[in-house]
Each structure stands twice: as C-alpha cells, then as structure tokens.
C-alpha cells in the first residue's frame, strides 16, 4: 500500500476539520501492531461465547467474567488461568417457553450474564437474560469455588430481556441503578433504582426508544457549599422529541438523578423527581446528522474533587453514512451547571398532532424543578423529595429536557478517525517523567484492535494500535486493573464475543532504539541510557529520556553506526534495495554517497529503491533514512546502508547455485542486524539472475510474509502504510513504576 496515498486518503477529512486551527493531526497510529498471540494473554472456552460482562476484584486477585450461561473467576495476573467457573443455564422449560414466544432458540433463548456487581460480605449480584425472562442471584467466590445461591430474584428492570439490547447499570452502595427495558417486547424503557423502586415515567418526553450506553456516579455532596446531593449520570441515545423533522432523528443524551430522590407524594409517586436530561453533541465535520454516543467513561483525578472529573465518550455516525469515529470529552462541571442553572425546553402544540419543543421562558417554580434537595430547600422546610410542592413536580414531569446542548471541551472532538468503528473507551492517568499527569485513552474498536492515544496540548497523538483479537471481533468491554506484572504497572482487560484478552498498559520493548522510544511519545515509556532499553517509567529511575509534548529525540545518545551491507550487482540487472520506515509517521529517504537521491535517479518505492539496468555509475554507498517529523523537529534515522559494487564479469557465464549461496550468505549478516537493531525492516533484497527470486533468512522471510498477509487483512482497520513488526527479541524485564490509576467505570 502506498503510504502517501493512504496518508492522503485517511487524513483528508480530519485534516479539513483541523485545518482551521492549523494543528498537525496524526490521524494514523504511529505504530500498528499486527495480531500476535504474544500481544495478550487470552481466555476462552469451547462452546462458550459473549464474554462481555466483567467485574474486577483486586483484593482477591480475580477477574469475574460473565459469558453466555457461564460465570468465571479468572486469575487477574494471568487470565489464562481459570480459578473457578459455574454454569447458569436457562432451564429447558424456560427455553421452550421462550421459543414458543417466537424467539430464536440458538441465539436468544439462552441465559446471557449481563450484571455482575460486588455487594459486600464476599458476595456478588448476578443477573442474566434467562431466555427472555431475566433473573438475578447471588454468587460467592471463596477458596477456589464459585457458588450460586438457590434463591432467585426477578430481574425485570435490572437486566434486559433481549440479549441484543444495550443496558447500563451500577451498584452505588446497596442500591442497584439500572437502565434497561422492563418488558418482553423491549418497549418499556426505564431508569430504575432498586431501593424504593424509584423509576422514570413511561412518557416519550422522558425516554423515547432509548439505547442505554453507560452510567456513572458522582460524589457531588462532598464539600458542597450548597448542601448538594450525590448524583447518578446516565448516557444514552434516543429518538429526538424536540426535532422539527419528518424523519426520525436520533440524538445523544446525558441524564442525571439525585441519589436521595424518594419520588413525589402525589405527583410523581415512586418516580424520579430529579430526572433531567440534556442533549450532548460531538461535532464531527459539518455532518448533517448528529453523531451517536456509543460509550462513556468517567475519569477523575483521585487527588482532586468531582469538579475535575471528565467524561470521555466515543461517538460514531448515525447511519452508515460515514466510517468516522470520534472521541469527545465533557467536563462533569459543565454538565452539572446546565442541569443546575440552565433553561428548560417546553412542548408547544403547533398543529393538531404536532408538538414543537421550544425554550421555556416563563416563570420557573421554586424549589427549582429537578434540583436535588439542598440547603436552600431544607431552609424552606423541604427535607426530602416527598415534601416537594406539586407545582415543581408537575413542571419536571412535563419538561425533563434542558434547552442547552452540552458541548465538548474545546467545542470539538479530541480525536476523529476513519476506519474501524470505536466501540469502547477507558482512560488511565499516567504521571510521566516530567512530573506531569497525562490521561491516556485506550479505545476499543469493532475490528478487535485497541488504540492508545494521548492529547498533548490539543495535538492528538495515537501512539499505537494493537490487534488483539484474531479473527477480528468487536471489543465489547474494557476494564483496568492497577496490578503490577513484571514491573509493568497496570493491565487492561478486553472482552469480545469469542474471548477475553489481557494486555499490559505499555509494551515499551516494542521500541528498541532510543529514537523510536522517544518518538513513540508514550507516557509509560522512556529510554534508560544506562540499560540501553526502552523501559516502563518508574519513580526509582531518574535517568530517563522522554519527550512527550514535542517528541524531541535529540537527547538520545548517538546511535551506533550502522555497518553497511556489501552487495555486488551485475551490470545490466535490476537492483532493489529494501527499506521500511521506522514508524507509520516516518517517510523513507535515500542517499547515495551522502547526497540525497532525487526521484529521477532511481525509482523510489514505498518499501525500497529500484534501479533498473544497473551500470557502473550506480556503484556507491546507499543509505536509507526514515524521516519523521515531530513537533520539536525533523528526525532522520538511518535504517540501513548498502555498499553496492558492480560486477563486470561476463554475464553469460552464470552459475546459479553459487550466486544464490553468495547472496544468502551476504544476507545472513542482516539477520543479525535484524535482531540487533530490531528495526522495522524485514523485506530484504536479494539479487539474483532471476528477477524476483528473493533469498532471505528464513525467520525474517516468514515474519514478513505473515506480516504482509496480516497487514492486507488489517489495512481497513489499521490504516497505515506500514505495520510494526516485532523483531525477534527476548523478553526484557523492565523497571518498576507506580502511577496513579483510576479504575472506576
Ligand atoms: C498463564 O497461564 C497459562 C495457563 O496456565 C500458562 O500456559 C502461561 O504460561 C501463563 N503465562 C504466564 C506469562 O505466566
Ligand atoms: C454472542 O456471540 C456469538 C458468537 O460470536 C454472536 O454471533 C452473537 O451475536 C453474540 N450474541 C450477542 C447477544 O451478543
Ligand atoms: C489498586 O486500586 C485500588 C483502588 O481502585 C486500591 O484499593 C488498591 O490498593 C490498588 N492496588 C495497588 C496494587 O496499587
Ligand atoms: C564490505 O567490504 C569492505 C571492503 O570493501 C570490507 O572492509 C567490509 O568488512 C565488508 N563488510 C561486510 C559486512 O562484509
Ligand atoms: C542498459 O544500458 C545499456 C548501456 O547504458 C544500454 O545499451 C542498454 O540498451 C540498456 N538496456 C535496457 C534493457 O534498457
């Protein structure tokens, strides 16, 4: 694939978007790591699918995993090791009943585990779809066994009936908050709290054919001057009621309720009195249709209060009109302010059957509709929502939608990318060598890859994209743990329909040179000159070269000079010198006898240099440079050098075998270079009497061909002209670090 072409194609749209700000946009990952079984540790069992529910119990060192008709306890340190499992199948009677109601016996009439929450006293609360009749149970893990308790609870309103329907839930203290559909048909959406059975109204102005995405709680009562309450936020998309359009339009929403809500006394009895929602926008290009939210992750700095928390979200196109995905981030404080101070929307009948939603500009009752009970309300004698006056309740019942649309930080996405659709996002904060903390985004895609990206002062940088699942599977869930394995602090767990994978937050050894390590701009990694290795950053390591914000590798020690490879070519033949750039952001440049080669002098190909009909004047010293621009400067890194001599001997007198052997021998040296340098060049030249007959060291050849086939498969997903190729390298141990993690979702 032509790098330039790919760059043009894939950068075009986002570039157009960013052109205004004149920001460099690295819309392709600097490194694309093709599938390799060593990329991750895996777990799956035969005939078990849909590994999409996870619960981390770090103090016990287990990852609880919910799949179809099965619950597992896996070793958090090595998920390939199963500590225990327990089956929970829908009974044959249930399955028959489900089938008789017209559902598919193979795909729908099974028990999909959907809810897994810790409830204290060493028990967990588990719910499953149970062949379209959701049930919940308690399960405990002790010793090395998972034990289900006998009693079942009705799972209606907690867990969806339909395994294909999205839902959201969290356990806050002893209260289960869930957003799902309450009935068999999936037509009664609710946000419900188990204690008190407080729920949303069945009204299209509250929830209108929603798709629930995610939920998070926020401790807004902590040190609150106004005596505010804690809140639960819900992200979803739904059919817009407020739109003046003929067709259905789906919009993204954030809603919130107050934890202390007990419902109203007469109006809104057993219903939320604090349910307010607002549209959230993630403006991608000049898109006509709004993009739709697919996942949201609450990220908080553990050293700061809730106002610093940020929701990171992924959005994709509404219809399949575009293959762009975007990441937008929202300040919780911005969202909170809209609910606390913003204007409401109100329905106005326009024609007999048509209702228009406009900004409400009339008088707003006191206490403010939808507000949590705060000091001001308490002063007025209102201590709980049951005390709220009907006027306030009726207002919020009719007008739960805010007028203002919530915009992301900076009024634009943090990242826009074409290709593999984003499905999940999770953010981890890393304290880098410069003492600054960087939020690092891990984004799952529908092609089974995970992207790692950081926004450096407005510049989006995708460090790498790693193919984790093969064959490709959409990533359905992502979780973190802060455990340390081989001095790498933090692990990421990804679930798909076919299995689960565990990857370290960073694999610094992928960079084998200082230049590559620094240009990778990975907050977790730095070059340790003493060890001569790219290592996981640790407090105990002071002498680390890292340049995250600008990618300046000039502090790197001079690389060892590369020994040129000797090459003898017969006059009149073609000469191909292979060379791949160091990264997807690098471009190849050739020099001959220290002078830049102009394209006319030889054919410069994506993966090398081709000189046809070699003549005496083509002899010389060829150098291949990988030129990579970072914010700081242009870096030219020598990848390979060739000393080409022209063999004038009679070309009629061919001795194939010897020639082949000679070539092989000369290339074998490269195998060593390959291993030593670990550079991303694998395509090796071989010159022969027969064009195209390549003779290569076996291992390199094999990797290259695997890489190529992998790459062609992955091109759609990885969008890069080159793939990163792991050089044969031993496992290296790296240095300990401690970073602050945030593991709550
Ligand atoms: C993880 O566990 C599996 C299964 O027991 C084992 O084969 C593998 O070697 C372990 N991996 C590591 C890195 O310990
Ligand atoms: C469960 O996994 C199977 C196998 O990959 C897949 O075909 C099916 O769509 C999945 N079901 C759900 C509800 O996600
Ligand atoms: C991991 O994080 C949890 C909180 O999420 C904390 O309680 C635990 O001590 C941390 N473990 C380590 C090894 O840092
Ligand atoms: C290449 O040839 C030069 C002399 O022309 C010699 O000094 C050098 O050692 C050779 N290099 C290799 C790698 O064989
Ligand atoms: C190769 O170059 C020689 C001398 O420069 C020329 O005579 C010959 O025609 C060329 N052959 C081809 C196939 O271009």
From TrEMBL:
<dbReference type="GO" id="GO:0030335">
    <property type="term" value="P:positive regulation of cell migration"/>
</dbReference>
<keyword id="KW-1015">Disulfide bond</keyword>
<feature type="signal peptide">
    <location>
        <begin position="1"/>
        <end position="19"/>
    </location>
</feature>
<dbReference type="Pfam" id="PF01437">
    <property type="entry name" value="PSI"/>
</dbReference>
<protein>
    <recommendedName>
        <fullName>Semaphorin-1A</fullName>
    </recommendedName>
</protein>
<feature type="domain" description="Ig-like">
    <location>
        <begin position="557"/>
        <end position="638"/>
    </location>
</feature>
<keyword id="KW-0524">Neurogenesis</keyword>
<keyword id="KW-0221">Differentiation</keyword>
<keyword id="KW-0812">Transmembrane</keyword>
<dbReference type="InterPro" id="IPR036179">
    <property type="entry name" value="Ig-like_dom_sf"/>
</dbReference>
<dbReference type="InterPro" id="IPR013783">
    <property type="entry name" value="Ig-like_fold"/>
</dbReference>
<dbReference type="InterPro" id="IPR027231">
    <property type="entry name" value="Semaphorin"/>
</dbReference>
<dbReference type="GO" id="GO:0045499">
    <property type="term" value="F:chemorepellent activity"/>
</dbReference>
<dbReference type="GO" id="GO:0071526">
    <property type="term" value="P:semaphorin-plexin signaling pathway"/>
</dbReference>
<dbReference type="InterPro" id="IPR016201">
    <property type="entry name" value="PSI"/>
</dbReference>
<feature type="domain" description="Sema">
    <location>
        <begin position="30"/>
        <end position="505"/>
    </location>
</feature>
<dbReference type="InterPro" id="IPR036352">
    <property type="entry name" value="Semap_dom_sf"/>
</dbReference>
<dbReference type="InterPro" id="IPR002165">
    <property type="entry name" value="Plexin_repeat"/>
</dbReference>
<dbReference type="InterPro" id="IPR007110">
    <property type="entry name" value="Ig-like_dom"/>
</dbReference>
<dbReference type="InterPro" id="IPR003599">
    <property type="entry name" value="Ig_sub"/>
</dbReference>
<dbReference type="GO" id="GO:0030215">
    <property type="term" value="F:semaphorin receptor binding"/>
</dbReference>
<dbReference type="GO" id="GO:0001755">
    <property type="term" value="P:neural crest cell migration"/>
</dbReference>
<dbReference type="Pfam" id="PF00047">
    <property type="entry name" value="ig"/>
</dbReference>
<dbReference type="GO" id="GO:0043931">
    <property type="term" value="P:ossification involved in bone maturation"/>
</dbReference>
<keyword id="KW-0732">Signal</keyword>
<dbReference type="InterPro" id="IPR001627">
    <property type="entry name" value="Semap_dom"/>
</dbReference>
<dbReference type="GO" id="GO:0005615">
    <property type="term" value="C:extracellular space"/>
</dbReference>
<dbReference type="InterPro" id="IPR013151">
    <property type="entry name" value="Immunoglobulin_dom"/>
</dbReference>
<dbReference type="InterPro" id="IPR015943">
    <property type="entry name" value="WD40/YVTN_repeat-like_dom_sf"/>
</dbReference>
<feature type="transmembrane region" description="Helical">
    <location>
        <begin position="669"/>
        <end position="690"/>
    </location>
</feature>
<feature type="compositionally biased region" description="Low complexity">
    <location>
        <begin position="734"/>
        <end position="745"/>
    </location>
</feature>
<keyword id="KW-1133">Transmembrane helix</keyword>
<keyword id="KW-0472">Membrane</keyword>
<comment type="similarity">
    <text>Belongs to the semaphorin family.</text>
</comment>
<keyword id="KW-0393">Immunoglobulin domain</keyword>
<keyword id="KW-0325">Glycoprotein</keyword>
<dbReference type="GO" id="GO:0007411">
    <property type="term" value="P:axon guidance"/>
</dbReference>
<feature type="region of interest" description="Disordered">
    <location>
        <begin position="709"/>
        <end position="745"/>
    </location>
</feature>
<dbReference type="GO" id="GO:0005886">
    <property type="term" value="C:plasma membrane"/>
</dbReference>
<dbReference type="Pfam" id="PF01403">
    <property type="entry name" value="Sema"/>
</dbReference>
<dbReference type="GO" id="GO:0000122">
    <property type="term" value="P:negative regulation of transcription by RNA polymerase II"/>
</dbReference>
<keyword id="KW-0217">Developmental protein</keyword>
């Amino acid at each position: 694939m032509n790098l330039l072409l790919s760059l043009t194609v894939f950068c075009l749209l986002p570039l157009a978007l960013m052109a205004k700000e004149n920001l460099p946009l690295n819309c392709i990952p600097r490194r694309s790591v093709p599938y390799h079984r060593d990329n991750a540790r895996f777990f799956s069992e035969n005939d078990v699918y849909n590994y999409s529910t996870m619960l981390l119990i770090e103090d016990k060192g287990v990852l609880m995993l919910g799949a179809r008709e099965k619950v597992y306890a896996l070793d958090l340190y090595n998920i390939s090791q199963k500590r225990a499992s327990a089956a929970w199948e829908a009974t044959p009677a249930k399955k028959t009943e489900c089938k008789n109601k017209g559902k598919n016996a193979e795909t729908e009439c099974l028990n999909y585990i959907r809810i897994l929450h810790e409830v204290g006293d060493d028990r967990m609360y588990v719910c499953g779809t149970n062949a379209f009749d959701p049930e919940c149970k308690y399960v405990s893990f002790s010793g090395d066994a998972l034990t289900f308790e006998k009693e079942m609870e009705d799972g209606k309103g907690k867990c969806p009936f339909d395994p294909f329907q999205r839902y959201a839930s969290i356990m806050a203290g002893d209260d289960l908050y869930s957003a799902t559909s309450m009935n068999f048909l999936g037509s009664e959406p609710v946000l419900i709290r188990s204690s008190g059975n407080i729920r949303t109204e069945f009204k299209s102005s509250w929830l209108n054919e929603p798709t629930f995405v995610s939920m998070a709680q926020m401790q807004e009562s902590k040190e609150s001057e106004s005596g505010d309450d804690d809140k639960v936020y819900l992200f979803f998309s739904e059919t817009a009621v407020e739109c003046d359009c003929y067709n259905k339009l789906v919009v993204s929403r954030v809603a919130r309720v107050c934890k202390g809500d007990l419902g109203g006394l007469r109006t809104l009895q057993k219903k939320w009195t604090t349910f307010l929602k607002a549209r959230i926008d993630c403006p991608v290009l000049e898109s006509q249709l709004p993009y739709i939210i697919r996942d949201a992750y609450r990220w908080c700095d553990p050293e700061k209060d809730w106002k610093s928390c940020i929701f990171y979200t992924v959005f994709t196109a509404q219809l399949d009109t575009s293959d762009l995905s975007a990441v937008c981030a929202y300040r919780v404080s911005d969202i909170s302010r809209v609910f606390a101070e913003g204007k409401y929307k109100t329905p106005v009948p326009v024609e007999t059957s048509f209702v228009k939603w406009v900004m409400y500009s009339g008088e707003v009752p006191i206490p403010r509709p939808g507000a949590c009970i705060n000091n001001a309300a308490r002063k007025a004698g209102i201590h709980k929502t049951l005390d709220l006056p009907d006027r306030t309740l009726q207002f919020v019942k009719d007008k739960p939608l805010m007028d203002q649309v919530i915009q992301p930080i900076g009024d634009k996405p943090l990242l826009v990318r074409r290709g593999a659709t984003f499905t999940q996002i999770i953010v981890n904060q890393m304290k880098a060598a410069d003492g600054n903390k960087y939020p690092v985004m891990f984004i799952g895609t529908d092609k089974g890859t995970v992207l790692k990206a950081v926004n450096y002062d407005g510049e989006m940088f995708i460090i790498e994209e790693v193919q984790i699942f093969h064959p490709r599977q959409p990533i359905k869930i992502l979780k973190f743990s802060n455990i340390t394995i081989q001095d790498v602090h933090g692990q990421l767990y990804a679930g798909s329909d076919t299995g689960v994978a565990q990857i370290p937050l960073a694999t610094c050894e992928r960079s084998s040179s200082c230049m590559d390590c620094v240009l990778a701009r990975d907050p977790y990694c730095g070059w340790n000159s003493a060890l001569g290795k790219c290592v996981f950053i640790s407090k105990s390591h002071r002498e680390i070269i890292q340049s995250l914000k600008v990618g300046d590798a000039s502090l790197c020690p001079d690389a060892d000079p590369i020994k040129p490879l000797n090459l003898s070519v017969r006059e009149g033949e073609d000469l191909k010198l292979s060379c791949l750039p160091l990264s997807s952001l690098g471009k190849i440049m050739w020099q001959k006898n220290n002078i830049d080669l102009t394209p006319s002098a030889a054919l410069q190909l994506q993966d090398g240099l081709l000189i046809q009909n070699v003549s005496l004047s083509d002899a010389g010293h060829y150098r291949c440079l990988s030129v990579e621009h970072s914010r700081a400067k242009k870096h030219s890194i020598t990848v390979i050098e060739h000393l080409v001599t022209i063999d004038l001997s009679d070309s009629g007198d061919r001795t194939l075998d010897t020639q082949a052997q000679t070539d092989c021998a000369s290339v074998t040296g490269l195998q060593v270079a390959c291993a030593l340098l670990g550079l991303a060049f694998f395509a090796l030249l071989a010159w022969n009497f027969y064009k195209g007959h390549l003779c290569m060291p076996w291992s390199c050849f094999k990797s290259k061909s695997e890489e190529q086939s992998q790459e062609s498969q992955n091109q759609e997903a990885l969008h890069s002209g080159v793939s990163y190729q792991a050089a044969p390298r031993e496992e290296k141990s790296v240095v300990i670090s401690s970073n602050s993690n945030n593991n709550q979702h």
